[in-house]
Design the sequence.
Protein backbone atom coordinates (compact mmCIF):
# COMPACT_ATOMS: atom_id res chain seq x y z
CA UNK A 1 0.00 0.00 0.00
CA UNK A 2 2.78 2.40 0.96
CA UNK A 3 4.58 1.42 -2.23
CA UNK A 4 1.45 2.10 -4.30
CA UNK A 5 1.01 5.51 -2.70
CA UNK A 6 4.68 6.29 -3.38
CA UNK A 7 4.32 5.22 -7.02
CA UNK A 8 1.28 7.47 -7.32
CA UNK A 9 3.25 10.44 -5.94
CA UNK A 10 6.09 9.80 -8.41
CA UNK A 11 3.65 9.58 -11.32
CA UNK A 12 2.04 12.88 -10.28
CA UNK A 13 5.47 14.51 -9.99
CA UNK A 14 6.35 13.36 -13.52
CA UNK A 15 3.13 14.79 -14.91
CA UNK A 16 3.68 18.12 -13.11
CA UNK A 17 7.25 18.22 -14.42
CA UNK A 18 6.11 17.41 -17.94
CA UNK A 19 3.45 20.13 -17.81
CA UNK A 20 6.10 22.63 -16.76
CA UNK A 21 8.62 21.63 -19.44
CA UNK A 22 5.96 21.55 -22.19
CA UNK A 23 4.82 25.01 -21.16
CA UNK A 24 8.37 26.36 -21.34
CA UNK A 25 9.76 24.73 -24.48
CA UNK A 26 6.72 23.19 -26.21
CA UNK A 27 5.88 19.52 -26.61
CA UNK A 28 8.03 19.02 -29.72
CA UNK A 29 11.18 20.25 -27.97
CA UNK A 30 10.57 18.63 -24.58
CA UNK A 31 12.98 15.77 -23.81
CA UNK A 32 12.48 12.95 -21.29
CA UNK A 33 15.72 14.12 -19.61
CA UNK A 34 14.29 17.62 -19.06
CA UNK A 35 11.03 16.13 -17.77
CA UNK A 36 12.69 13.84 -15.21
CA UNK A 37 14.86 16.75 -14.06
CA UNK A 38 11.88 19.13 -13.69
CA UNK A 39 9.96 16.38 -11.88
CA UNK A 40 12.85 15.70 -9.51
CA UNK A 41 12.81 11.95 -10.28
CA UNK A 42 15.41 9.67 -11.85
CA UNK A 43 15.15 8.67 -15.49
CA UNK A 44 14.69 5.09 -14.25
CA UNK A 45 11.64 6.13 -12.23
CA UNK A 46 10.26 7.95 -15.27
CA UNK A 47 10.67 4.85 -17.46
CA UNK A 48 9.00 2.73 -14.78
CA UNK A 49 5.83 4.79 -15.33
CA UNK A 50 6.01 5.85 -18.97
CA UNK A 51 7.54 4.29 -22.08
CA UNK A 52 7.62 7.45 -24.18
CA UNK A 53 6.93 11.15 -24.32
CA UNK A 54 3.72 10.37 -26.18
CA UNK A 55 2.53 8.25 -23.25
CA UNK A 56 3.11 11.18 -20.90
CA UNK A 57 1.17 13.46 -23.26
CA UNK A 58 -1.75 11.02 -23.33
CA UNK A 59 -1.66 10.76 -19.52
CA UNK A 60 -1.76 14.57 -19.26
CA UNK A 61 -4.77 14.77 -21.59
CA UNK A 62 -6.56 12.00 -19.65
CA UNK A 63 -5.79 13.60 -16.29
CA UNK A 64 -6.92 17.04 -17.51
CA UNK A 65 -10.14 15.52 -18.80
CA UNK A 66 -10.68 13.60 -15.53
CA UNK A 67 -10.13 16.74 -13.39
CA UNK A 68 -12.44 18.94 -15.46
CA UNK A 69 -15.17 16.27 -15.81
CA UNK A 70 -15.12 15.66 -12.02
CA UNK A 71 -15.47 19.41 -11.48
CA UNK A 72 -18.33 19.46 -13.99
CA UNK A 73 -20.15 16.66 -12.19
CA UNK A 74 -19.89 18.56 -8.92
CA UNK A 75 -21.16 21.79 -10.50
CA UNK A 76 -24.12 20.01 -12.06
CA UNK A 77 -25.05 18.34 -8.75
CA UNK A 78 -25.96 21.79 -7.40
CA UNK A 79 -29.43 23.15 -7.99
CA UNK A 80 -29.33 25.77 -10.75
CA UNK A 81 -30.91 26.51 -14.10
CA UNK A 82 -29.43 24.85 -17.21
CA UNK A 83 -28.04 28.13 -18.54
CA UNK A 84 -26.45 28.81 -15.14
CA UNK A 85 -24.85 25.37 -15.24
CA UNK A 86 -23.45 26.04 -18.72
CA UNK A 87 -22.02 29.38 -17.61
CA UNK A 88 -20.49 27.83 -14.47
CA UNK A 89 -18.90 25.01 -16.48
CA UNK A 90 -17.13 27.47 -18.79
CA UNK A 91 -16.10 29.70 -15.87
CA UNK A 92 -14.70 26.70 -13.99
CA UNK A 93 -12.73 25.53 -17.02
CA UNK A 94 -11.45 29.06 -17.67
CA UNK A 95 -10.26 29.28 -14.05
CA UNK A 96 -8.43 25.95 -14.33
CA UNK A 97 -6.88 26.96 -17.67
CA UNK A 98 -5.36 29.93 -15.87
CA UNK A 99 -4.43 28.22 -12.60
CA UNK A 100 -3.92 24.45 -13.03
CA UNK A 101 -0.73 23.41 -14.91
CA UNK A 102 -2.11 19.93 -15.71
CA UNK A 103 -5.30 21.38 -17.24
CA UNK A 104 -3.28 23.96 -19.21
CA UNK A 105 -0.98 21.27 -20.60
CA UNK A 106 -3.76 18.78 -21.32
CA UNK A 107 -5.84 21.30 -23.30
CA UNK A 108 -2.78 22.55 -25.19
CA UNK A 109 -1.81 19.00 -26.18
CA UNK A 110 -5.39 18.38 -27.34
CA UNK A 111 -5.52 21.43 -29.61
CA UNK A 112 -2.00 21.02 -31.01
CA UNK A 113 -2.27 19.01 -34.20
CA UNK A 114 1.39 18.04 -34.01
CA UNK A 115 1.12 16.14 -30.72
CA UNK A 116 -0.19 12.91 -32.22
CA UNK A 117 -0.60 11.33 -35.64
CA UNK A 118 -4.38 11.45 -35.40
CA UNK A 119 -6.25 14.30 -33.73
CA UNK A 120 -7.94 13.92 -30.34
CA UNK A 121 -11.75 14.20 -30.59
CA UNK A 122 -13.01 12.38 -27.45
CA UNK A 123 -12.86 15.25 -24.94
CA UNK A 124 -14.63 17.66 -27.34
CA UNK A 125 -17.31 14.99 -27.85
CA UNK A 126 -17.93 14.56 -24.10
CA UNK A 127 -18.32 18.31 -23.58
CA UNK A 128 -20.64 18.66 -26.57
CA UNK A 129 -22.91 15.92 -25.18
CA UNK A 130 -23.00 17.60 -21.76
CA UNK A 131 -23.85 20.97 -23.31
CA UNK A 132 -26.46 19.48 -25.62
CA UNK A 133 -28.24 17.95 -22.62
CA UNK A 134 -28.07 21.26 -20.77
CA UNK A 135 -29.32 23.16 -23.83
CA UNK A 136 -32.25 20.73 -24.10
CA UNK A 137 -33.09 21.25 -20.45
CA UNK A 138 -32.88 25.03 -20.94
CA UNK A 139 -35.33 24.73 -23.83
CA UNK A 140 -37.80 22.54 -21.89
CA UNK A 141 -37.74 24.95 -18.97
CA UNK A 142 -38.43 27.94 -21.19
CA UNK A 143 -35.03 29.58 -20.53
CA UNK A 144 -34.26 29.87 -24.25
CA UNK A 145 -36.08 31.67 -27.04
CA UNK A 146 -36.41 28.59 -29.30
CA UNK A 147 -34.49 30.17 -32.22
CA UNK A 148 -31.33 28.01 -31.96
CA UNK A 149 -31.70 24.21 -31.65
CA UNK A 150 -29.97 22.69 -28.58
CA UNK A 151 -27.61 20.47 -30.61
CA UNK A 152 -26.59 23.42 -32.76
CA UNK A 153 -25.75 25.51 -29.70
CA UNK A 154 -23.65 22.67 -28.24
CA UNK A 155 -21.89 22.08 -31.58
CA UNK A 156 -20.86 25.76 -31.62
CA UNK A 157 -20.15 26.58 -28.00
CA UNK A 158 -17.41 23.96 -27.49
CA UNK A 159 -15.37 24.98 -30.59
CA UNK A 160 -15.98 28.66 -29.78
CA UNK A 161 -14.64 28.23 -26.24
CA UNK A 162 -11.68 26.28 -27.67
CA UNK A 163 -10.80 29.14 -29.99
CA UNK A 164 -11.32 31.80 -27.31
CA UNK A 165 -8.84 30.16 -24.92
CA UNK A 166 -6.38 29.58 -27.78
CA UNK A 167 -6.41 33.22 -28.89
CA UNK A 168 -6.30 34.38 -25.26
CA UNK A 169 -3.19 32.22 -24.82
CA UNK A 170 -1.58 33.72 -27.96
CA UNK A 171 -2.39 37.32 -26.97
CA UNK A 172 -1.95 37.43 -23.18
CA UNK A 173 -0.85 33.96 -21.97
CA UNK A 174 -4.55 33.52 -20.96
CA UNK A 175 -4.58 36.54 -18.60
CA UNK A 176 -7.66 37.92 -20.38
CA UNK A 177 -9.45 34.55 -20.57
CA UNK A 178 -12.13 35.28 -17.91
CA UNK A 179 -12.96 38.55 -19.70
CA UNK A 180 -13.12 36.84 -23.10
CA UNK A 181 -15.38 34.03 -21.86
CA UNK A 182 -17.59 36.68 -20.28
CA UNK A 183 -17.82 38.42 -23.67
CA UNK A 184 -18.64 35.12 -25.38
CA UNK A 185 -21.60 34.71 -23.03
CA UNK A 186 -22.90 38.23 -23.71
CA UNK A 187 -23.20 37.24 -27.37
CA UNK A 188 -24.61 33.76 -26.71
CA UNK A 189 -27.20 35.16 -24.29
CA UNK A 190 -28.34 37.71 -26.86
CA UNK A 191 -28.74 34.83 -29.32
CA UNK A 192 -30.46 32.14 -27.26
CA UNK A 193 -31.92 33.32 -23.94
CA UNK A 194 -35.63 34.12 -23.74
CA UNK A 195 -36.36 37.87 -23.69
CA UNK A 196 -37.89 37.85 -20.19
CA UNK A 197 -34.89 35.94 -18.75
CA UNK A 198 -32.12 38.05 -20.32
CA UNK A 199 -31.76 40.60 -17.53
CA UNK A 200 -31.55 37.90 -14.87
CA UNK A 201 -28.97 35.86 -16.84
CA UNK A 202 -26.85 38.92 -17.65
CA UNK A 203 -26.71 39.72 -13.93
CA UNK A 204 -25.66 36.15 -13.20
CA UNK A 205 -22.77 36.15 -15.72
CA UNK A 206 -21.69 39.57 -14.45
CA UNK A 207 -21.37 38.14 -10.92
CA UNK A 208 -19.74 34.87 -12.06
CA UNK A 209 -17.09 36.45 -14.24
CA UNK A 210 -16.25 39.45 -12.09
CA UNK A 211 -15.49 36.95 -9.30
CA UNK A 212 -13.35 34.91 -11.71
CA UNK A 213 -11.53 38.00 -13.01
CA UNK A 214 -10.76 39.05 -9.44
CA UNK A 215 -9.49 35.57 -8.49
CA UNK A 216 -7.35 35.45 -11.63
CA UNK A 217 -5.77 38.84 -10.96
CA UNK A 218 -5.08 37.92 -7.32
CA UNK A 219 -3.51 34.61 -8.29
CA UNK A 220 -1.33 36.35 -10.86
CA UNK A 221 -0.14 39.05 -8.50
CA UNK A 222 0.80 36.30 -6.01
CA UNK A 223 2.68 34.29 -8.66
CA UNK B 1 14.63 38.05 -65.02
CA UNK B 2 14.36 34.43 -66.16
CA UNK B 3 16.54 33.45 -63.21
CA UNK B 4 14.29 35.39 -60.83
CA UNK B 5 11.19 33.70 -62.21
CA UNK B 6 12.85 30.30 -61.86
CA UNK B 7 13.82 31.07 -58.25
CA UNK B 8 10.21 32.04 -57.56
CA UNK B 9 8.96 28.73 -59.01
CA UNK B 10 11.43 26.78 -56.85
CA UNK B 11 10.38 28.70 -53.73
CA UNK B 12 6.72 27.96 -54.46
CA UNK B 13 7.51 24.28 -54.99
CA UNK B 14 9.27 24.13 -51.62
CA UNK B 15 6.31 25.72 -49.86
CA UNK B 16 3.86 23.33 -51.55
CA UNK B 17 6.09 20.39 -50.61
CA UNK B 18 6.38 21.62 -47.03
CA UNK B 19 2.60 22.04 -46.78
CA UNK B 20 2.15 18.46 -47.97
CA UNK B 21 4.74 16.97 -45.59
CA UNK B 22 3.45 18.98 -42.61
CA UNK B 23 -0.07 17.79 -43.33
CA UNK B 24 1.05 14.16 -43.46
CA UNK B 25 3.48 13.91 -40.54
CA UNK B 26 3.01 17.17 -38.61
CA UNK B 27 5.42 20.08 -38.30
CA UNK B 28 7.41 18.55 -35.42
CA UNK B 29 8.19 15.39 -37.41
CA UNK B 30 8.77 17.02 -40.81
CA UNK B 31 12.42 16.94 -41.95
CA UNK B 32 14.07 19.18 -44.51
CA UNK B 33 14.97 16.01 -46.44
CA UNK B 34 11.29 15.01 -46.71
CA UNK B 35 10.36 18.55 -47.74
CA UNK B 36 12.94 18.78 -50.53
CA UNK B 37 11.86 15.33 -51.77
CA UNK B 38 8.13 16.22 -51.74
CA UNK B 39 8.96 19.52 -53.47
CA UNK B 40 11.03 17.79 -56.14
CA UNK B 41 14.03 20.08 -55.55
CA UNK B 42 17.55 19.36 -54.34
CA UNK B 43 18.52 20.00 -50.75
CA UNK B 44 20.94 22.61 -52.09
CA UNK B 45 18.07 24.48 -53.76
CA UNK B 46 16.09 24.31 -50.52
CA UNK B 47 18.99 25.77 -48.52
CA UNK B 48 19.38 28.53 -51.13
CA UNK B 49 15.88 29.74 -50.18
CA UNK B 50 15.51 28.78 -46.52
CA UNK B 51 17.98 28.38 -43.65
CA UNK B 52 15.73 26.26 -41.42
CA UNK B 53 12.41 24.51 -41.04
CA UNK B 54 11.24 27.43 -38.92
CA UNK B 55 11.91 29.82 -41.80
CA UNK B 56 9.73 27.67 -44.07
CA UNK B 57 6.98 27.67 -41.43
CA UNK B 58 7.12 31.47 -41.18
CA UNK B 59 7.01 31.75 -44.99
CA UNK B 60 3.93 29.49 -45.06
CA UNK B 61 2.17 31.63 -42.45
CA UNK B 62 3.06 34.83 -44.32
CA UNK B 63 1.94 33.41 -47.66
CA UNK B 64 -1.33 32.12 -46.18
CA UNK B 65 -1.96 35.52 -44.66
CA UNK B 66 -1.11 37.28 -47.94
CA UNK B 67 -3.46 35.02 -49.96
CA UNK B 68 -6.39 35.39 -47.57
CA UNK B 69 -5.93 39.15 -47.07
CA UNK B 70 -5.78 39.65 -50.88
CA UNK B 71 -9.01 37.66 -51.20
CA UNK B 72 -10.54 39.77 -48.42
CA UNK B 73 -9.62 43.00 -50.18
CA UNK B 74 -11.31 41.77 -53.36
CA UNK B 75 -14.46 40.73 -51.51
CA UNK B 76 -14.70 44.08 -49.74
CA UNK B 77 -14.29 46.00 -53.02
CA UNK B 78 -17.69 44.65 -54.09
CA UNK B 79 -20.81 46.51 -53.11
CA UNK B 80 -22.55 44.69 -50.25
CA UNK B 81 -23.75 45.31 -46.71
CA UNK B 82 -21.22 45.02 -43.86
CA UNK B 83 -22.82 41.84 -42.50
CA UNK B 84 -22.73 40.35 -46.00
CA UNK B 85 -19.03 41.19 -46.24
CA UNK B 86 -18.35 39.52 -42.89
CA UNK B 87 -20.23 36.39 -43.97
CA UNK B 88 -18.40 36.29 -47.32
CA UNK B 89 -15.00 36.68 -45.62
CA UNK B 90 -15.63 33.67 -43.37
CA UNK B 91 -17.05 31.62 -46.28
CA UNK B 92 -14.02 32.45 -48.44
CA UNK B 93 -11.59 31.47 -45.68
CA UNK B 94 -13.53 28.27 -44.98
CA UNK B 95 -13.33 27.37 -48.69
CA UNK B 96 -9.57 27.97 -48.76
CA UNK B 97 -9.09 25.97 -45.55
CA UNK B 98 -10.68 23.02 -47.33
CA UNK B 99 -9.10 23.51 -50.76
CA UNK B 100 -5.78 25.39 -50.56
CA UNK B 101 -2.82 23.44 -49.08
CA UNK B 102 -0.86 26.64 -48.31
CA UNK B 103 -3.78 28.17 -46.40
CA UNK B 104 -4.39 24.90 -44.51
CA UNK B 105 -0.74 24.68 -43.50
CA UNK B 106 -0.41 28.38 -42.62
CA UNK B 107 -3.43 28.34 -40.31
CA UNK B 108 -2.36 25.09 -38.70
CA UNK B 109 1.10 26.47 -37.99
CA UNK B 110 -0.48 29.60 -36.50
CA UNK B 111 -2.74 27.70 -34.09
CA UNK B 112 -0.11 25.12 -33.06
CA UNK B 113 1.64 26.38 -29.96
CA UNK B 114 4.58 24.11 -30.59
CA UNK B 115 5.60 25.69 -33.90
CA UNK B 116 7.47 28.64 -32.45
CA UNK B 117 8.80 29.75 -29.08
CA UNK B 118 6.38 32.67 -28.91
CA UNK B 119 2.84 32.46 -30.24
CA UNK B 120 1.76 34.20 -33.45
CA UNK B 121 -0.76 37.00 -32.83
CA UNK B 122 -0.40 39.28 -35.90
CA UNK B 123 -2.81 37.52 -38.28
CA UNK B 124 -5.54 37.32 -35.62
CA UNK B 125 -5.02 41.04 -34.96
CA UNK B 126 -5.44 41.97 -38.65
CA UNK B 127 -8.68 40.00 -38.95
CA UNK B 128 -10.06 41.47 -35.73
CA UNK B 129 -9.42 45.00 -37.02
CA UNK B 130 -11.15 44.21 -40.32
CA UNK B 131 -14.15 42.73 -38.52
CA UNK B 132 -14.35 45.59 -36.06
CA UNK B 133 -14.53 48.08 -38.94
CA UNK B 134 -17.22 46.00 -40.62
CA UNK B 135 -19.17 45.67 -37.38
CA UNK B 136 -19.02 49.45 -36.93
CA UNK B 137 -20.30 49.96 -40.47
CA UNK B 138 -23.11 47.44 -39.78
CA UNK B 139 -24.10 49.41 -36.70
CA UNK B 140 -24.05 52.78 -38.49
CA UNK B 141 -26.20 51.40 -41.28
CA UNK B 142 -28.76 49.98 -38.85
CA UNK B 143 -28.06 46.35 -39.76
CA UNK B 144 -27.43 45.38 -36.12
CA UNK B 145 -29.68 45.56 -33.08
CA UNK B 146 -27.23 47.61 -30.96
CA UNK B 147 -27.00 44.99 -28.18
CA UNK B 148 -23.41 43.86 -28.86
CA UNK B 149 -20.69 46.50 -29.32
CA UNK B 150 -18.72 46.24 -32.61
CA UNK B 151 -15.34 45.63 -30.92
CA UNK B 152 -16.83 42.92 -28.73
CA UNK B 153 -18.26 41.12 -31.78
CA UNK B 154 -14.88 41.28 -33.56
CA UNK B 155 -13.03 40.11 -30.45
CA UNK B 156 -15.28 37.04 -30.34
CA UNK B 157 -15.86 36.13 -33.98
CA UNK B 158 -12.17 35.61 -34.88
CA UNK B 159 -11.42 33.24 -31.95
CA UNK B 160 -14.78 31.49 -32.51
CA UNK B 161 -13.95 30.88 -36.19
CA UNK B 162 -10.47 29.67 -35.16
CA UNK B 163 -11.96 27.11 -32.80
CA UNK B 164 -14.64 26.02 -35.28
CA UNK B 165 -12.06 25.19 -37.97
CA UNK B 166 -9.83 23.46 -35.43
CA UNK B 167 -12.61 21.19 -34.14
CA UNK B 168 -13.80 20.56 -37.71
CA UNK B 169 -10.25 19.44 -38.54
CA UNK B 170 -10.16 17.11 -35.51
CA UNK B 171 -13.57 15.59 -36.25
CA UNK B 172 -13.77 15.36 -40.05
CA UNK B 173 -10.50 16.67 -41.54
CA UNK B 174 -12.49 19.92 -42.20
CA UNK B 175 -15.13 18.20 -44.38
CA UNK B 176 -17.91 19.69 -42.25
CA UNK B 177 -16.33 23.16 -42.04
CA UNK B 178 -18.81 24.95 -44.37
CA UNK B 179 -21.71 23.51 -42.36
CA UNK B 180 -20.13 24.52 -39.04
CA UNK B 181 -19.41 28.10 -40.19
CA UNK B 182 -23.01 28.28 -41.41
CA UNK B 183 -24.18 27.22 -37.93
CA UNK B 184 -21.90 29.82 -36.32
CA UNK B 185 -23.62 32.51 -38.37
CA UNK B 186 -27.11 31.34 -37.41
CA UNK B 187 -26.17 32.00 -33.78
CA UNK B 188 -24.36 35.29 -34.46
CA UNK B 189 -27.26 36.59 -36.54
CA UNK B 190 -29.72 35.78 -33.75
CA UNK B 191 -27.44 37.74 -31.40
CA UNK B 192 -26.58 40.84 -33.41
CA UNK B 193 -28.73 41.43 -36.50
CA UNK B 194 -31.65 43.88 -36.28
CA UNK B 195 -35.04 42.13 -36.06
CA UNK B 196 -36.31 43.51 -39.39
CA UNK B 197 -33.13 42.40 -41.22
CA UNK B 198 -32.93 38.86 -39.84
CA UNK B 199 -35.00 37.13 -42.52
CA UNK B 200 -33.01 38.75 -45.33
CA UNK B 201 -29.64 37.90 -43.72
CA UNK B 202 -30.67 34.30 -42.98
CA UNK B 203 -31.58 33.89 -46.66
CA UNK B 204 -28.21 35.31 -47.67
CA UNK B 205 -26.20 32.91 -45.46
CA UNK B 206 -28.35 30.01 -46.65
CA UNK B 207 -27.39 30.81 -50.27
CA UNK B 208 -23.71 31.48 -49.47
CA UNK B 209 -23.11 28.32 -47.49
CA UNK B 210 -25.19 25.90 -49.55
CA UNK B 211 -23.03 27.00 -52.52
CA UNK B 212 -19.87 26.45 -50.45
CA UNK B 213 -21.06 23.06 -49.18
CA UNK B 214 -21.81 21.98 -52.76
CA UNK B 215 -18.38 23.15 -54.00
CA UNK B 216 -16.66 21.39 -51.09
CA UNK B 217 -18.44 18.10 -51.75
CA UNK B 218 -17.65 18.30 -55.47
CA UNK B 219 -13.98 19.04 -54.83
CA UNK B 220 -13.78 16.13 -52.41
CA UNK B 221 -15.42 13.64 -54.75
CA UNK B 222 -12.94 14.72 -57.44
CA UNK B 223 -9.95 14.33 -55.07
Sequence:
Amino acid sequence: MVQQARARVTRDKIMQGAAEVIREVGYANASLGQISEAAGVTKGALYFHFNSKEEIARALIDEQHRITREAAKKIMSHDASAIEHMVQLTADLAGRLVGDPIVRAGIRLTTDSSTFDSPIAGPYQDWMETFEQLAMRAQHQGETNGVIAPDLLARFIIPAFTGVQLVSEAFTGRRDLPERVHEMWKILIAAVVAEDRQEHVLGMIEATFSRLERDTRRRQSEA
In short: The mean pLDDT of chain B is 93. Residues 53-77 of chain B form the longest helix (25 residues). The domain at 60-222 of chain B is CATH 1.10.357.10 (Tetracycline Repressor; domain 2).
